[in-house]
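Subject: design request, 230 residues
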């Protein structure tokens, strides 16, 4: 169970939202094509463990917006990975003028999250939709890969997760909490604010009894910095 109430509240989050138009695709960058997505889907399915259900491991926004239909939900722990705000964004929840930060699974530690067993009647279409949600640019920030996850009742499963591409120019590595909280308290894009993303992630983890010490500390700092502006 979560050990304490959230300091970051919907009222504080509302103060960070601004009406910002979607700037659209940025000229001069290389984006994934339908053929590119088809190739990544084929590669991932070729690597799929034989006779294994199609599992997806979610650590952030996929928990509260999985985008695809699923048949079952379980809690799980991915060892060797941790969730962290580690890459820069200038769209969606940030702008070129006030860039935001996005969370990803980076190497090291462990991550408690949610396993979704996806419907398996059309895996190509399911993964195609999912991959289009998770990455658009080349090189992508989020790399799909198969990882091992221990379920809450013990057995190990192989699941698709999206992990940080450390070769991406957007990757910033490990950042101090003060830097991250400054950005999340200020940045906003056409999809919403960084504070909103943090609140949704922490609150949906809390609903499932998942306590992430780093995110709890971070939401307290973000709440304080928003409050200081009142």
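Subject: RE: design request

Done. Sequence follows.
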């Amino acid at each position: 169970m979560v050990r304490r109430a959230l300091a970051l509240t919907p009222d504080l989050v509302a103060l960070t939202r601004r009406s910002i138009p979607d700037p659209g695709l940025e000229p001069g960058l290389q984006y994934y094509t339908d053929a590119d997505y088809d190739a990544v889907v084929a590669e991932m399915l070729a690597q799929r463990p034989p006779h294994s259900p199609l599992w997806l491991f979610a650590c952030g926004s996929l928990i509260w917006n999985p985008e695809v239909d699923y048949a079952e939900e379980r809690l799980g722990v991915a060892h060797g990975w941790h969730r962290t705000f580690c890459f820069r964004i200038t769209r969606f929840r940030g702008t070129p003028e006030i860039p935001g930060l996005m969370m990803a699974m980076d190497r090291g530690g462990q991550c408690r999250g949610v396993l979704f067993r996806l419907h398996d009647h059309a895996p190509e279409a399911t993964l195609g939709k999912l991959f289009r949600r998770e990455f658009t640019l080349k090189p992508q920030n989020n790399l799909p890969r198969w990882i091992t996850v221990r379920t809450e009742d013990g057995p190990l499963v192989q699941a698709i997760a999206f992990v940080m591409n450390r070769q991406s120019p957007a990757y910033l590595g490990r950042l101090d909490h003060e830097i991250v909280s400054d950005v999340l308290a200020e940045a906003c894009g056409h999809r919403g604010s960084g504070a909103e993303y943090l609140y949704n992630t922490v609150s949906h983890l809390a609903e499932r009894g998942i306590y992430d010490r780093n995110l709890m500390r971070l939401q307290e700092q973000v709440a304080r910095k928003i409050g200081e502006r009142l």
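Helices lie at 10-14, 34-46, 61-64, 123-134, 177-186, 194-207, 213-227.
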